[in-house]
Specification:
The chain is α/β, with parallel strands linked by helices and about 220 residues long. It is built from 6 helices and 10 strands, in the order βββαββαβαααβαβββ. The strands form 2 sheets. It has a 6-stranded mixed beta sheet with strand order 6-7-8-3-9-10, with helices on both faces. The longest helix is centred in the last third of the chain and has 18 residues. One of its GO terms (molecular function) is ATP binding.
Length: about 220
């Protein structure tokens, strides 16, 4: 059996309104996502998809329970573990405007201590695979929306993370470009044996996921 990339063990999370009344987002939730598996997360707007992904990515703290990354209990905001094991893709690309395309893709490797020459070679090879090699030294401002999001995917997968967290990664794209970006995420994940935990409103992508989960009544349930 494949290695567990992400595990929730009795995870609960509550939102507190202005009166400090607790509203459950997740309650005693258990989840297992394996290496190479693509799991889509759906649910109504405001139900807690982003919060669930942030907990999985160690960017938000659960109120109760444990989160494990590759079998290792993961404390909230464990920066070292997050940099090593997790890649992030968002609806907005979050590329750094002061860096060119190549530098943006290199960044995760440089942060993790990879020598610059090695990081540059890997980034160039990845951009070539994505047919973005001609953009390597361009400002991100010169790219189309689809190109920017493909660069964001490259940045997320270059260190071959165990887990990719993707929050509406195609939400701002036209249907054809969205399909290209989604296919790129899936292909990169399978090639690197990365797990993907992805929130999407686009039903056309759900059939490509290995599993679809829905947040309903503060629980994660299997859907379609």
């Amino acid at each position: 059996m494949s290695e567990l990339a992400l595990e929730f063990c009795d995870v609960s999370k509550f939102f507190r309104d202005k009166t400090q009344h607790e509203i459950p987002i997740l309650r005693n939730t258990n989840l297992q996502i394996y290496a190479g598996e693509i799991v889509a997360l759906i649910g109504a707007s405001g139900v807690g998809k982003t919060t669930t992904l942030q907990i999985a990515g160690l960017l938000d703290k659960q109120d109760f329970g444990k989160v494990k990354i590759c079998g290792e209990e993961a404390p909230y905001l464990d920066t070292a573990l997050r940099r090593k094991k997790i890649g992030f893709i968002y609806q907005f690309h979050h590329l750094l405007s002061e860096l060119n395309v190549l530098e943006n893709v290199m960044l995760p490797l440089l942060i993790s201590g990879t020598p610059k020459a090695v990081a540059q070679k890997k980034a160039k090879n990845l951009l070539e695979l994505l047919k973005l090699e001609k953009t390597a030294y361009q400002s991100v401002h010169t790219l189309s929306g689809g190109q920017r999001q493909r660069v964001a995917v490259a940045r997320a997968v270059i260190k071959k993370p165990a887990l990719i967290i993707a929050d509406e990664p195609t939400g701002n794209l036209d249907p054809n470009t969205a399909k290209d970006v989604f296919d790129l995420i899936c292909r990169s994940a399978k090639e690197n044996c990365s797990a993907v935990f992805l929130a999407t409103h686009d039903s056309s992508f759900l059939q490509k996921a290995d599993r679809v989960l829905e947040i309903f009544n503060s629980s994660l349930i299997s859907s379609i």
